[in-house]
Structures
1.
Amino acid sequence: MNYIKIFSPATVANVSCGFDALGLALETVGDTMTFSKTDTKGVKITKITGADLPLDTQTNAAGVVAIAMLEKQPVDFGIDITIHKGYTPGSGLGSSAASAAGAAFGVNQLLGDIFSPLELTQFSMLGEEATCGTPIADNVSAAIYGGFTLVRSYEPLSIVKIPVPADLRVVAIHPQVEVKTKDAREVLPKEVPLKDAVTQWANVGGLISGLHTNDYQLISDSLIDIIVEPARKTLIPHFDLVKKEALKAGALGAGISGSGPTIFALCKDDATAEIVYKTIQNAYQDKQIDFNMILSKINTEGIKILEQH
Amino acid sequence: MNYIKIFSPATVANVSCGFDALGLALETVGDTMTFSKTDTKGVKITKITGADLPLDTQTNAAGVVAIAMLEKQPVDFGIDITIHKGYTPGSGLGSSAASAAGAAFGVNQLLGDIFSPLELTQFSMLGEEATCGTPIADNVSAAIYGGFTLVRSYEPLSIVKIPVPADLRVVAIHPQVEVKTKDAREVLPKEVPLKDAVTQWANVGGLISGLHTNDYQLISDSLIDIIVEPARKTLIPHFDLVKKEALKAGALGAGISGSGPTIFALCKDDATAEIVYKTIQNAYQDKQIDFNMILSKINTEGIKILEQH
């Protein structure tokens, strides 16, 4: 294979109760990336469209990942990468993760598919570390494995793929405000009351069980975050309004996507998702803040090959 | 129905990562209780064998529960209760819970089966409150529902029954030392680092997923408690030794049952459970502390009717 074109999905990390542990991948939002073998050794990012991001391979998540992979597995060819960002970086939908995971997947294909999904996740985490300061795995694992993923452990890295009810839909609103990852981290409590931690892990257990059994009521009941959301929602204009309207319109739950500012809602089917979409849209219309809306299935297969030769 | 004889199981609460949220019921250890209609209104505990416990219905967990039920549903008969404790109170295997849940179940049968399992759990929690000071639901829900149960929420009370791999076995050792519930509560941290809470809820998610998919490796990897066990194990003589020997002998995981002093180990089948049983027994033999050993299947149906007429 000399060329591959792929789609790497946007991802929602945390998913309410599962801070730093859960992620899910979107079907219709993500990056399109190409990877071409070249005669000149090394990695080059030759073009980025859709967003203003560095072509420099030392600072771009995709570049960092690709270089690390070629260091691990030296080859006699080079790789040119192009990236089309399908959504805005800084939205809280795992933008750097999509590029990092896409690079891990694409480069691995050109190398002859020699790395496991877990190894691809580990390479992708280097991209997260380079761009966000932390080698966090929740977004990249969701992009690579698809569906819901649980980062069960970091040492050793252990990713669990959780089944997804087929009709589950994600509605999301991205208010065009900047939430710096640094600020989003700084508002977090360093310590939490044990009883709150118990409440949170009981909900994580409920959510995981609900996903395994297609129990929408249980999923809905468990989509509660009493630890991170109360701290972070202050950074997101009209969060409470959006959440309230989404729930009133029938969403199973709503919360902050990653570190925000995107707010996501999970819905049990297309019809509900469309109502939730319009309700949120209406509620935000007069708020003097530009915003994008998303309605998506959940991507269950991870990164997709669009073309190869 | 004028008479019913039931078996109410012993239970392991917490199950490593799931402090105050998870419980499981044992097949072969528990209380045998009888409930007889009488002409004299009110509740009497006429006999307790197997342990030295109060017959007074205001202080005995079973009495407290039965009285609350008859207050809620007045009837023109009375109820006599007998209890045979099949194991030692104060062992950390839900002794008061077995009596409380057994009473809820038995009285409900004499009332014509008018309460749901959730309502029976709520009544049972009154027995826990009266005897332990806290209306905790993890043991009583496991006794009533059977199998693994998750107390997802207290307000409102929400119990989730989690499936159990058929071959799963419990080995437990009860060192005959007293661990006061008060002490076991006092050693707990009031606050925990957020990153430790994340580790813990990731393991809860992994354990629940592993139980749903019969994934013994995932169950084993997830049976980790970095919050409560390090604090409480100091109250249990030779805890580290027992855990180390259990794991070396092939147990999936081991931890403190409830607030101790019983130490439980989960094993993937009978053969492993027998090896783990003998290994723990040998390790404790020369420790100058009397102890009981248990090897049990997991009770998947909850409280059982032994006789009725």
2.
Amino acid sequence: MTESPVPPPPPMHHDSPIYRRIADRLRDQILSGALDDGDRLPGENALMAEYGIARATARQALAVLINEGLAVPRRGSGVYVRLFRPIRRHGSRRLSREQWGRGRAIWDSDTPGRAYAVDEVDLRREPASTPVSRALRCDDVWVRHRRYSVDGRPVQVATSYFPADIVEGSAITLPDPGPGGVYARLDDLGYPPVHFTEEVRARMPQPRETASLDLPAGTPVIVISRIAFAAGGVPVELNEMALDSASYVLQYDFDA
Amino acid sequence: MTESPVPPPPPMHHDSPIYRRIADRLRDQILSGALDDGDRLPGENALMAEYGIARATARQALAVLINEGLAVPRRGSGVYVRLFRPIRRHGSRRLSREQWGRGRAIWDSDTPGRAYAVDEVDLRREPASTPVSRALRCDDVWVRHRRYSVDGRPVQVATSYFPADIVEGSAITLPDPGPGGVYARLDDLGYPPVHFTEEVRARMPQPRETASLDLPAGTPVIVISRIAFAAGGVPVELNEMALDSASYVLQYDFDA
């Protein structure tokens, strides 16, 4: 174990709980650069000895920094300053026709040089729920649910809905939709997407999202709801995504 | 007090803590529509009586739903299903030249018909920090820090940085920058913004964000970092925003 980088504690004011004050001090060190990306934070034992506190209190202090996204626990090893190497998800470029029109996977644009995988695919046809039916203006839908992992870590779950009338019998209803993915297949069917609307929210995860994405406590999800429109404003896909917020930066470019 | 809408508890499995299972049941009722927007959830006393649990456990169950953004506490009154009436922030339309070029405030586009206020403004000139200097390619900056409230509730804090060489002596350095705001003034100075890049992240708030935005526990913030570019790719503003995630939907539109 490396030496604790925390200097001997000066007297602290008693207007906030001790775990908060310890977290404040560690945060200052991270934000000032005294503790750098990938550095190990003092462990529970070190904090207990240094501040004369109980293990639960030490754990609370570290949890504050984990919840703020400034640190990550590694199982059986300790808590580290987060080496934030996010996926840069470029809202418009990734969905350009040049991308899927040439048979490229959209994810190649998000994760150049990194290993990504679709490690869960679930397909079904079902009657559309009220919100889905309202978005897609149809009664029955094909549903594609996937989970994506990057560098072996799950980062996103996504559920896409397609009007069954349009996609029935196409490769969109198969686990592998083929080169260029579902947008290239919509193009084959005469419904190439020409416009996208993305709605972005953030919130704490629901239990099934925590489980699917293996999220540490206190990590929010970014929720994106996208509708793809073909010519004439015909909606051809609704995609509901939940992203591990610690893994993503979304980038949007536009002109004044 | 209204009658509790929770039916008598059927036997529950013991694979998760009781507060989780109570939260699961309440969530099901919210997501199924049995409990509607604005309905009051059963209070701590009702949950204690119904499930034979301690107050802390009842509180934990309600906290789960609050953290997921499905419910909100109202001081001294109880916990209510969230009436989600978010601010729809339209990424590109709000920043179009038509907006600020006609002397309109950008916020008029975000909050039609709602009362919004800039209730804190702080101005200073200072040497640029390393990341700010890198983004704006200059040594000294004017800093505009503001807090925005909608319907009396703080929803966003924003800190904008401008190259001091460009904006010195202009109304951008005054509390009220005048009609059309800072972009109209940059236009007056010969640097109208023509392009914007927004980076969007989500994370748990830092303590000063929790304080400024009066965030309930477990509410993440959406963090947006935007650079405005004038012709020739000259960066003229860096704006770092933190948004109450419960108050916002960000919308982005783009073509394939």
